[in-house]
Amino acid sequence: MRALSRKTQTMGLIGWLMLAYIAAAIGAIASIEAASFYQSLQQPSWAPPAWLFGPMWTTLYGLMGIAAWLAWRERGARPALVMFVVQLSLNALWSWLFFVWQLGAIAFIGTVVLWMLILITLVMFWRLKPLAGVLLLPYLAWVSLACALTWSVWQLNPQILG
After folding, report:
1. Assign residue 24 a region: left if phi > 0, alpha if psi is -120 to 50, beta otherwise?
2. With a threshold of 0.85, does the pTM exceed it?
3. Of all residues in the chain, what percent are helix, strand and coil, respectively (each to 5)?
4. What average pLDDT does the chain have?
5. What is the per-residue burial (b if ≥16 Cβ within 10 Å, else e) of 110-119?
6. Mind listing the pLDDT tens digit for each residue in 121-158?
């Protein structure tokens, strides 16, 4: 670990959490009408209830911010943090693709690419600080579910999600 003062570490944690929650806010703006739109779509029987998405994503963004902070504290973290920001950007874009622009195929491809970027980020973080990688495991699991759900909802609603 790099020698960082307590103040620097605290500011770093705040900064990485802010970045994660800014991405969340960008996605949330696109999701303002998501609940009613999502409920209007045919869903697979295994789809999680709509109320679960908010608390789950809030938790996951917190874990992402902490994971990034843990990685940031390590020497040689720059490539992993660049990958983190890239995947975080795609994460924020997904809500726009699906809920606003209703592009089912592109949203599905986006989840597949996001899953791969998360896996790469997880491995890179793990190599820097294993706990940082572990903190991304719930995110990878949730995006695995989101990938399957995006595919299923798109296939069940071709007239809406093209």
Report:
1. alpha
2. yes
3. 80, 0, 20
4. 96
5. bbeebbebbe
6. 999 999 999 999 999 999 999 999 999 999 999 999 99
**Is 40 inside a domain boundary?**
no
Six-digit token string for 28: 């949330």
The answer to whether residues 63 and 135 touch, using CB atoms and an 8 Å cutoff, is: yes
Strands (E), 37-140: none
Q: Residue 12 to residues 115, 125, 148, 154: CA-CA distances in angstroms?
A: 26, 16, 34, 39
pLDDT at 1: 77
- Nearest alpha carbon to residue 93 among 108, 80, 110: 110
* CATH number of the domain where residue 69 is located: 1.20.1260.100
How many domains is the chain built from? Answer: 1
Q: With CA atoms as reference, report the closest residue to 53 among 26, 32, 35, 29.
A: 35
> What range does the domain containing 152 cover?
6-32+47-161
pLDDT tens sequence across 25-81? 999 999 888 888 988 999 999 999 989 999 999 999 999 999 999 999 999 999 999
